[in-house]
Amino acid sequence: MEQDLAKVTVRQLARAESTCPRRLALDHLDTRANRGANRGFRVSGQIVADARLAHTRLSVPRPEHFRPTDDLFPEEAQVYAVAAAWYVALFGHQPMVVSDVERDDFETIATSLGVRLIGGAGLALESESGDRELRMISIGDRSTEELLESASVKFALLRRREWTRLGPLRIVRVDLLGGSAVETDVDGADLWEPLREWLVERVGAIREHADQRAPRAGWECGRCPYIAGCSALRT
Ligand code: SF4
Question: Helix/strand/coil (H, E, C) string of 78-123?
Fold first, then answer.
């Protein structure tokens, strides 16, 4: 069954060799994690969801499209307000509509590799004239790596298999905390084979390094969702 397939995330793909083998293995097996492990994604998840709603029809985003939910802590609500304002300021000039709607769920089955790709796939949009754009929205990501070297960008393009392979598109990475954006134009059809080869190589690295019996205590323990019961931390 599909739900029995191992889970693959951007984090696993990007950091298989440097992640604690036990944490990597449990995450890959999609083992239930401690509550609250994904709190850091609450604001960015809401911003992306609200931005998507703003583009349900061919439209520019406006402030009224962004309404934070009541469950955000005050500091999260402040971050949400800053991020929403930057989204409107940066993208409020060109009407866009969501594209590749069926890929807006949270997982894609990679049948030949026997895994589920789980995680966000950016925001896929197109203009009235059909120009396509993949927006990679972050809050506080000051990454300086080339867009096409980014595991998040590769993951999003891989999750949008048919859409990516349609051809030319613009990739935009935006940090909605600092209001910065970088972009590049690519041909998704040309990129597809290198993306597939990268995925095969990285899934191989995950399988090689994941080991439930080999916890490796270190800096990541403090934020590890599998800290409960970990033998490496027993005294
Ligand atoms: S608590 Fe530390 S050693 Fe244990 S699984 Fe998590 S990261 Fe690894």
Answer: HHHHHHHHHHHHHHCCCCEEECCHHHHCCEEEEHHHCEEEECCCCE
**Ligand 1 pocket, residues with Cβ under 6 angstroms:** 20, 22-23, 215-217, 220-221, 224, 226-227, 230, 232-233
- pLDDT reported for residue 144: 81
DSSP state of 55: T
94, 127 contact by CB (below 8 A): yes
- Mutation probe of ligand 1 site: the residue of 34, 226, 235 with most atoms within 8 A of C-beta: 226
- pLDDT tens profile 20-68: 999 999 999 999 876 554 555 789 889 999 999 999 999 999 999 999 8
pTM, 2 dp: 0.92
Distance CA 113, CA 145 (A): 27
